[in-house]
Description:
Helix content: 10-25%
Low-confidence stretches: 1-24
Strand order of the largest sheet: 1-2-3-4-5-6
Number of strands: 9
Mean pLDDT: 83
Radius of gyration: 21 Å
Strand content: over 45%
Largest sheet: 6 strands, antiparallel
Order of helices and strands: HEEEEEEEEE
Amino acid sequence: MKTKITSVLLICSLMCLSIFSTHNVTYANDNSTITYFEDGSYLVTIIESCDDYTLNSRELTITENKTKTSNYYDSNNELLWYVKVKGNFTYNGTTATCNSSEVVAASNNSNWKISNRSASKSGSTAYASCTAKRYSGSTVVQTINRQVSLHCSPSGVYS
């Protein structure tokens, strides 16, 4: 009887593990998100201020620079590569505009190479993207396309 209960519990546990291991898990707070992948790697995305802004009291607008960075780590907590969007935004409580965007992407690991860097903007959102490829010798064994978007609301809330 004891072995039957143990077997049933073991089977149920394995079924739960297989259900949960097939999905990415994301945790978030106001300025960052963490997404965990099946292989133990994870992506940390952070919004940061650049500490410079301009207040135009005549037009009641604020212009400021913000960044949003996605850092890709392996299961050993080693930073492998990152992509960052830098955006310049103007907002006034009624409207928001992205004035410019810039991409910064780099590898911190010799097995990973970054290509296809691009930046764009649309309305009140700045975009940056890149392709990260992991090599084993001269063979590509993994490819990740990543886009980071940074949106400014009319009241200056970033997401």
